Structures are given as C-alpha cells and as structure tokens.
C-alpha cells in the first residue's frame, strides 16, 4: 500500500485500464524497498506526434522525495512499454543514489577542533 500520492496521466494517447495497471504494477515492484522516501509521484505518458508513428512515445516521471529537490526523468521510445520501463528504472536508480549519498554523509565523522588543538597547530 502506498503512503504517498500517486498519479498517472495520459495525454494525446489512447490509454486503457490495462496500461495504467501495467504502469502501477511496474512502479510498485521498482520502489518496493524505498517507497518510504517518496512523497508524491506523477507519471505522464504522451504520444508526441499522434498516430503518425515513429519514436514518439514519452514517459515523464516527476517524483517528490523526502530528500529535497524533485527527481524528473523523461524517456522517449518507439514503444510505450519501453519508455515506461526505462523511465521507471532511471528514476528509481536516481532515488537510490540520492539515498546512498545521504547515508554516506551521516557516516562521515565530524571532527571539531578544540581551542588547544588549534593553538598547537599555529
């Protein structure tokens, strides 16, 4: 069960309930272990050129996290499923990397120089 806002929007594309279920299922699998870091997610899928064909299926993910700035990932592919999978993978990878950096910062020892140490170095 999600503890964050989740929105899936389709513009300029015919998106049925099966596509939305696919997006939600893939998203939930990808963020299973890190979802407590997420505040909100908006996934937008678009057919850029309409029914003309070509590399024009776009998936854009905007993720608000508990780490500050939002994570924005956009992927354009010929097939919508490929665009969705790559965008999800990239956004989750970015969040995991930010979490790792945050944890590494907490592990760094902080050395506070005392007045006596400062005078000894002068």
How would you characterize the overall build of this protein?
The structure is a single chain. The chain is an alpha+beta fold and 122 residues long. Helix content is 40%, strand content 27%. It contains three helices and four strands, in the order βαβββαα. Strands 1-2-3-4 form a four-stranded mixed beta sheet, covered by helices on one side. The longest helix is centred in the C-terminal third of the chain and has 28 residues, at 80-107. It is elongated and about 75 Å long. The protein starts with a strand and ends with a helix. The model has no long low-confidence stretch (mean pLDDT 86).
**Mean pLDDT metric:** 86
Distance between the termini: 59 Å
Low-confidence stretches: none
Pairing-aware structural class of the strands and helices? alpha+beta
Quaternary: single chain
**Outline:** elongated
| Strand line-up of the largest beta sheet | 1-2-3-4
Query: Main sheet, how many strands, which sense, barrel?
Result: 4 strands, mixed
List keywords for this structure.
single chain, 122 residues, alpha+beta, four-stranded mixed beta sheet
């Amino acid at each position: 069960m999600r503890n964050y806002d989740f929105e899936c929007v389709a513009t300029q594309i015919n998106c049925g309930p099966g596509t939305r279920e696919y997006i939600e299922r893939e998203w939930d699998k990808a963020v299973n272990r890190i979802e407590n870091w997420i505040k909100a997610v908006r996934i937008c899928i678009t057919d850029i050129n309409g029914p003309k064909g070509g590399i024009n299926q776009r998936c854009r993910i905007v993720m608000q996290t508990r780490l500050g700035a939002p994570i924005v990932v956009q992927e354009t592919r010929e097939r919508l499923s490929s665009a969705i999978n790559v965008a999800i993978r990239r956004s989750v990878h970015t969040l995991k990397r930010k979490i790792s950096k945050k944890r590494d910062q907490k592990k760094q020892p902080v050395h506070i120089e005392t007045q006596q140490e400062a005078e000894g170095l002068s």
